[in-house]
Amino acid sequence: MRVVTFKVDEDFLEKLDSFARLKGVTRSEVIRKALELYLRLEDWREQDS
């Protein structure tokens, strides 16, 4: 896997880390799943147009 770096504000990072702890997964896993979902939804919207 490749490494991607991006910036988020402190409040967002705290929410992200809390969510990851709650789910028992890594921060990276939460971000990967969120991006996969976002891309699927955007693809669906483009096909529906």
From TrEMBL:
CDD domains: RHH_NikR_HicB-like (cd22231). Signal peptide: none annotated. Residues 3-42 form the Ribbon-helix-helix protein CopG domain. GO terms for biological process: regulation of DNA-templated transcription. Pfam families: RHH_1 (PF01402). This is Ribbon-helix-helix protein CopG domain-containing protein. It comes from Pyrodictium delaneyi. The lineage of its organism: Archaea, Thermoproteota, Thermoprotei, Desulfurococcales, Pyrodictiaceae.
